[in-house]
């Protein structure tokens, strides 16, 4: 037995951070990871269940791997193992594989090495961070959620909100920094609830990070608008290491739908947060999520959402078609929107998002920003992202991966997907 495993991850940044931690646990036990599926004697599929499409991709990947190597063992974990286990069990009826709940995913290496750990991790926090990319690490600081939005299954899949503590997060950042990373993305399900169970707060964490470090870029993960307080915005605005980049879930631009979704804010609050950010940081990136086709969403409510988003000074729009999720309350709501109508609404919102992105790119032309080049190259160009999350590119020979550069944003690419930049000065933080 050669102890070779193949790990395939779907879904969110949190999943990727956890997969990296699982891989390191395998390595400690003497396992080797391969990128060639046919070489593996163990497959681990880290599933996603946020949409029907995500579940379909999970099932397709499981089937593909089993065809590639029918003799290999298979383990499936992640959110689908909790919220739609019936679908996985049907697949496993003919080709048996082990289904591991989300709460026990970190114990998979021990299970495969026949070294079971009886400790339950269901209500405890298990830290994780990624080390695969050379430039950016995803650091898990929080998990779970208490909101129970009617379209969402995260509380059922990942449990209630829980988090690391400030001391451990600072230690994680130091470990990642010593590995040569220039940027860390703080990730979780609802990161602004960090520390609530132990009398700490997300603001206190950010203040400690800001005072302890000066040579690492810190990028915040998704922040709920009702928890993105004035102090957090001001801290980012005045920090040298906190990136001017906010990801704020909107989900709907009309209050009636937000209420049916059980969201904890209204459109007036959301607008005030965007305006506050842009007043203090006119160059900041503000990304928003929106779900269209929620049960009962009328043509009028969709138009209200469209007009609301059009009126906002946002930089990116991430569009999701509503899909019923097992256990989510909205799956039992009446007045489902026709799938054809949902697709039309999605297309209109995607087009709006592209216009918002182009306007954001153009508003930054002529400015000087900090760029972190990545490994990605194409057509003689090396790509990377500015501090305010603009995808940009410059001649490959002018930039090294993972070496911060000061660049001037010159012009949009022909396809408007990125900005061409001119290097002014190369330096490390």
Strand content: 15-25%
* Termini separation: 45 Å
Question: How many beta-strand runs?
Answer: 19
Based on the structure given, which CATH architecture of the largest domain is correct? Answer: Alpha-Beta Horseshoe
Helix fraction bin: 25-40%
The low-confidence runs, each spanning 5 or more residues with pLDDT under 50, are: 118-122
Spatially, the strands of the biggest sheet line up as 2-1-3-4-5
CATH superfamily of the largest domain: tm_1862 like domain
Q: Any idea what the shape is?
A: globular
Let me know the average pLDDT.
Answer: 92
CATH top level label of the largest domain: Alpha Beta
Structural summary, described in words:
The protein is α/β, with parallel strands linked by helices. It has a five-stranded parallel beta sheet with strand order 2-1-3-4-5, sandwiched between helices. About 1% of the residues have low confidence. The protein contains 13 helices and 19 strands. It has three domains: 109 residues, Methylthiotransferase, N-terminal domain (Rossmann fold, 3-Layer(aba) Sandwich), CATH 3.40.50; 237 residues, tm_1862 like domain (pyruvate-formate lyase- activating enzyme), CATH 3.80.30; 59 residues, OB fold (Dihydrolipoamide Acetyltransferase, E2P) (Beta Barrel). It is 35% helix and 24% strand. Strand 16 and strand 17 form a beta hairpin. The termini are far apart. It is globular and about 55 Å long.
Nutshell version of this structure?
The protein is α/β, with parallel strands linked by helices. The chain has helices spanning 13-28, 52-68, 80-83, 85-94, 108-112, 154-158, 166-178, 202-212, 230-238, 255-260, 267-280, 299-311, 339-364, and strands at 4-9, 32-33, 42-47, 73-78, 98-99, 128-129, 136-140, 142-143, 162-163, 183-187, 217-220, 245-251, 285-292, 316-321, 368-378, 381-386, 391-395, 405-412, 419-426.
């Amino acid at each position: 037995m050669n102890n070779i495993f193949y790990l395939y991850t779907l879904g969110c940044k949190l999943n990727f951070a956890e997969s990296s931690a699982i891989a390191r646990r395998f390595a400690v036990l003497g396992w080797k990871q391969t990128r060639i599926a046919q070489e593996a004697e163990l497959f681990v599929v880290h599933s996603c269940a946020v949409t029907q499409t995500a579940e379909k991709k999970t099932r397709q990947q499981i089937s593909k791997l089993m065809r590639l190597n029918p003799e290999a063992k298979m383990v499936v974990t992640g959110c689908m193992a909790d919220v739609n286990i019936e679908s996985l069990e049907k697949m496993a009826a003919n080709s048996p594989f082990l289904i591991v709940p989300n709460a026990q995913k970190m114990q998979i290496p021990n299970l495969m090495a026949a070294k079971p750990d009886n400790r339950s991790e269901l209500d405890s926090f298990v830290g994780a961070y990624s080390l695969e990319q050379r430039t950016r690490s995803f650091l898990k600081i929080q998990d779970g959620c208490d909101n129970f939005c009617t379209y969402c299954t995260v509380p059922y899949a990942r449990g209630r909100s829980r988090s690391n503590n400030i001391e451990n997060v600072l230690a994680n950042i130091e470990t990642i920094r010593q590995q040569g990373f220039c940027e860390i993305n703080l990730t979780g399900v609802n990161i602004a609830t960090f520390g609530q169970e132990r009398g700490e707060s997300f603001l206190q964490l950010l203040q400690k990070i800001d005072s302890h470090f000066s040579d690492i870029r810190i990028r915040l993960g998704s922040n709920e608008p009702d928890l993105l307080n004035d102090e957090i915005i001001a801290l980012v605005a005045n920090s040298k290491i906190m990136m001017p980049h906010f990801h704020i879930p909107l989900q709907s631009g009309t209050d009636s739908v937000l209420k049916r979704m059980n969201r904890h804010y209204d459109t007036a609050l959301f607008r005030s947060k965007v305006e506050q950010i842009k007043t203090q940081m006119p160059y900041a990136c503000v990304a928003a999520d929106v779900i269209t086709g929620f049960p009962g969403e009328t043509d009028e409510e969709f138009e209200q959402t469209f007009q609301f988003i059009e009126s906002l000074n946002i930089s990116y729009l991430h569009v999701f078609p509503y899909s019923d999720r097992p256990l989510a309350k909205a799956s039992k709501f009446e007045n489902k929107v026709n799938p054809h109508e949902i697709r039309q609404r999605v297309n209109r919102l995607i087009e709006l998002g592209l216009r918002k992105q182009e306007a954001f790119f153009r508003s930054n032309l002529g400015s000087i920003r900090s760029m972190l080049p990545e490994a990605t190259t194409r057509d003689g160009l090396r790509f990377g992202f500015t501090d305010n999350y603009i995808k940009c590119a410059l001649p490959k020979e002018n930039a090294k991966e993972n070496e911060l550069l000061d660049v001037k944003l010159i012009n949009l690419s022909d396809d408007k997907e990125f900005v061409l930049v001119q290097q002014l000065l190369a330096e490390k933080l």
